[in-house]
Amino acid sequence: MMIFLLAAVSIFSRVNGPLLALARWTGAALMGLMVIVILVQVFFRYVLNDALAWTEELARFLMLWMVSLMAPTAFRHGGFISIDTLRRFLPDRPAALLNLALLLVSAVVLWWAVTIGWNETTGIGGRFTMPSLMLPAALDLSAWMKVPRSFMMASLATGVTMMFSVNVELLLRLLADLFGAGDRLKPLSQAVGLESE
Length: 197
Description:
Layout: H1 2-47, H2 55-76, H3 85-89, H4 92-122, E1 129-136, E2 144-148, H5 149-178
C-alpha cells in the first residue's frame, strides 16, 4: 500500500512540476502582454482621444488566463490566504487530520468547478463570440473572425483542472506523511528538477 501511495505522489509531482512551471512562465508572459495592451489603451484614450474597442476586452482575456495559470502554483505552495489559527494551536496529528479534511472539501469543490468549467466552455455559453475581439482567419489578413467566448471560458476550466491535480498531490503527500512515509518524499521545492523555486 505504501509503495503505491509513494508512486502516486511521484507521478503527480512529475506531472504537476513541469506543467506548473510552464504555466507560470506563460502567465508571466501574459501579464507582460496585458500591461502593454493597457498602456496602448491609455495612450489611445487619453493622448489621442480615440479609444480602441478591443483593448479592454483583450486585457480582460489575458488577465483571466494569467490568473488561471498562476493560481495552481500558489495553491501548491500555500500561497492562498487562509485562517490557520486553530491549526497552529493543535498538536501535529490533529492538525494534519484537519488539513486532510480541508483538502477533501477542496477536492469536492474543485471537482464540481472542473465539471462546471468544462460544461460552460463546451456548452451554450461557449458558442457565443466576444463583441470586439477578432483573430485573422486568413494568412493575408483579408478575413477576420470574432474570438469565440469559449476561448476565454476555457481559462476557468484549465485553472481549476490544474488546481484539482495539485489538490490530489497534496492529499497524497499528506496521507503518506500520516502513514509515516513523509521522510521518504522530496519536498515540493525539490520534487521536480524543472521547477525553480
